[in-house]
Amino acid sequence: MKKVWLEIKDYVIIILVVVIVRTFIVTPAIVDGASMDNTLKDGQLVIINKFIYRFDDIKRFDIVVVSNEINNDKIIKRVIGLPNETITYKDNHLFINGELIKTDYDFGDTEDFTKTTKSNEYFVMGDNRVVSKDSRVLGNFTRDDILGRVKYRLFPFNKFGSIDK
């Protein structure tokens, strides 16, 4: 029995490390759909950092993976509204609590709306506003709904690395 354990010990350790890393630290995900165009395209492979928000706050414009209980799936979106804010889009301009927020991002046309978040709620939107099913339809998400941040792309190889937008 001792000889068998010595032969399989390294494999058991590798499997345990992989399971722990994928469960608690990082995991790959495939972008499904066009809601994050042009930042992320359908079929691209990204890394979800599940660990980052244990030590860092969720920031406006972070790209996050959210657990969408309405459709029982996970969606990739951009954080627009933080807790206790009023989010307004008017004439393709973003206002938070009445203050114009300048961005380097071009999200295309966004229909006018006003939404509010409560404490521990976040308002998320896809970058391709015309086709994105996001907080405008699904409502706000809690911190517990946010599974992690997407900051790196693995595939396609010509886009490998940090996601700039």
How would you sum up this structure, described in words?
By secondary structure, this protein is of the alpha+beta class. The chain has one domain: Umud Fragment, subunit A, CATH 2.10.109. 16% of the residues lie in helices and 36% in strands. It is built from two helices and twelve strands. Strands 1, 2, 3, 4, 9, 10, 11 and 12 form an eight-stranded antiparallel β-sheet that branches. It has a four-stranded antiparallel β-sheet with strand order 7-6-5-8, with no helix packed on it. The chain is elongated and about 70 Å long. The termini are far apart.
Name a few traits of the molecule.
elongated; 165 residues; Umud Fragment, subunit A; 4-stranded antiparallel β-sheet; 2 helices; alpha+beta; 8-stranded antiparallel β-sheet; single chain
